[in-house]
Amino acid sequence: MALVPVIQPPIMKLLTTEKERSVKMGQLREVSKIEKIVFPIAVTIIVSLIVPSAAPLVGVLMFGNLMKESGVCDRLVKTAQNELMNIITIFLGITVGATAVASNFLSWKTIFIIVLGLIAFCVGTACGVLLGKLMYVISGHKINPLIGSAGVSAVPMAARVSQKVGAQTNPSNFLLMHAMGPNVAGVIGSAVAAGVLLSVLG
Question: Where exactly are the structural domains of the chain?
Answer without folding.
Answer: 4-22+32-194
